[in-house]
Amino acid sequence: MRCRFIIALGTALAIAPLAVTPAWAKSKYKILHAFTGQPDGGGVFAGVAFDVKGNLYSGTTGGGTYGYGTVFDLTPGSDGKWTETILHSFCKAPRCTGDGASVWDTPTLDSKGNLYDFSSAGVFQMTRGAHGWSFKVIYSGGSRKAKAPNDPAGECGLLLDAEGDLYSTCLSLGQNYNGAVSELSPGTNGWTEKNLFDFCLHPLNGVCVGGNHPQFPLGWDKAGNLYGVTTEGGADKAGVAFQLEYKAGVWEEHVLHSFPAYSGDGYPPSAGLTPDSSGNIFGMTQQGGGDLNGTVFELSRQTDGRWKETILYDFNNADRDGAGPRGGLVFDKGGNLYGTATAGGDPNCLCGVVFKMTPGPKGKWTYQVLHRFTGKDGYDPEAGVVLDDKGNLYGTTSEGGPGNYGVVFEITP
């Protein structure tokens, strides 16, 4: 498993005050399912995804029938209880040939209810039929396959467009093995991968100023531009936030920010980027900031075309408010942001938190902890949360819970 985030306390760096007010928000927390390892899976590093009927889908890195992970769904019942069904258990064949092992990434579902995700074998598709679900690896290349089955580094995710094409930073290693953003398209002869942009083809004095080794899911804006992050490279060698703009038949990169650009800036990026309806971009870093415990930041375009970074929240009270944010941010209909931090929160456990950020006048944001994990109710939320149409939040923890193999939870704010 990935090493736990180390909380750095007592080291304060100068940073512009943003009048962010931490608070405790009253909310209702409920475990929908607690994993037991075998036969139902365990080690839930992926987040959950909804289908149109309100069922939740995700995967595990271990457990299941053969011990190498599962794909599962949770179906709500009229009594408020949720029922887990294992859709696929990995690694039936020797050496995991055919289906691979371990799901680290949050699945993507299309309008027909087909499910897409990564295993160590590549990208797979699962389709519901009259006699259950079928499993098929549709693309067997990429940087995800190059990693060991038990290596979570380089969380990927698949971004779906209206035509059914999939986009990711883990479909190709890139021409110089520095990473690429690629598109996977269905056709009559199967799925075809196409590199849209290769990182660090032309380094400057040996430095990949445009970033290298992209990670985490990509995001869209209303104009069809792609947004993402790298964890290495950039002017300050700790990763960049980038935009890919489609112009004259090619994708052109614009570096929005290099981490860390100044004392107190966060580094490296720990999640993909989330655009809002006004064109501002939001993200997180797992370290850096005043106490080196991570940040939530906003990137906004200025009148001269440059992008300005603003630290919206600096995790400077780890014992209470969490540390090491990870897994991505999501907006609700009111413009509030939600996310998770992998550590801190409860001083007796440091098991992580779920948080909410509310925008206020003059660009000020209020930070609220919705839930502090204590171990028995979950431990180490590695993925972000999703919202239903009523504003309830759903997510996972990689460990903890009654069975100590992770949980799926619901929070009613």
Report what the structure shows.
With 413 residues, this protein is mainly β. Helix content is 2%, strand content 44%. It has helices at residues 143-146, 318-321, and strands at residues 23-24, 28-34, 49-50, 56-59, 70-76, 82-89, 108-109, 115-119, 122-129, 132-139, 159-160, 166-168, 180-187, 190-198, 212-220, 226-232, 240-247, 250-258, 266-269, 274-275, 281-288, 295-301, 307-314, 323-331, 337-343, 353-359, 365-372, 386-387, 393-397, 407-412. The strands form seven sheets. Strands 1-27-26-25-24 form a five-stranded mixed β-sheet. Strands 19, 20, 21, 22 and 23 form a five-stranded antiparallel β-sheet that branches. Strand 8 (115-119) and strand 9 form a beta hairpin. The longest helix is centred in the middle third of the chain and has 4 residues, at 143-146. The two termini are 31 Å apart.
Keywords, separated by commas or semicolons:
413 residues, mainly beta, 2% helix
Strands, helices and their partners?
Elements: E1 23-24, E2 28-34, E3 49-50, E4 56-59, E5 70-76, E6 82-89, E7 108-109, E8 115-119, E9 122-129, E10 132-139, H1 143-146, E11 159-160, E12 166-168, E13 180-187, E14 190-198, E15 212-220, E16 226-232, E17 240-247, E18 250-258, E19 266-269, E20 274-275, E21 281-288, E22 295-301, E23 307-314, H2 318-321, E24 323-331, E25 337-343, E26 353-359, E27 365-372, E28 386-387, E29 393-397, E30 407-412
Parallel strand pairs: 1-27
Antiparallel strand pairs: 2-30, 3-4, 4-5, 5-6, 7-8, 8-9, 9-10, 11-12, 12-13, 13-14, 15-16, 16-17, 17-18, 19-21, 20-21, 21-22, 22-23, 24-25, 25-26, 26-27, 28-29, 29-30
